[in-house]
Amino acid sequence: MRSKYTFLLLALLIGCMTTGFSQEPEKLSTIAPNAPADKPQPVKSAEQKALDEAIKPYVEKARKTYPEAKKRFLAGLPPKHVFFVTTRLHDDGGHWEQVFIEVKEIKDGVIKGLIASDIETVSGYKAGDKYSLPETELMDWTVSKPDGTEEGNFVGNFLDTYKPD
Q1: Inside any domain, residue 152
Q2: Global confidence as pTM
């Protein structure tokens, strides 16, 4: 009888341990140390319309090429390749901030992941938070490779050289 209880106790303990491991929070992936650094730039409200016009062709290119990048992600990227999308976060104060989301899942038109940018403008968010967005809110996509190179990042590469009038 005692061995029966010992077995049940052991089974319960193992079950609790595996449940604890499965509930560990998701973490951001490590990218190559020589990957291009994000260069956030504050945008004054008067400059927003000009910025949106300037990035429009790059957003269109990202959205046009996204289905192939999504297909590759869903099939499984090579080891240490990390898939990001770019979107804008908004807060109750009317502020917005363009950020990277590390993609963890894409299903039924929804992208789920973790905020991968340090938040500087909007409130209520921080790097590492879970975040979901409809695919229609995607502005750009990036695959970060282990050698430090990237694919995509059409908007980001343009913004690295953009100088508002």
Answers
A1: yes
A2: 0.79
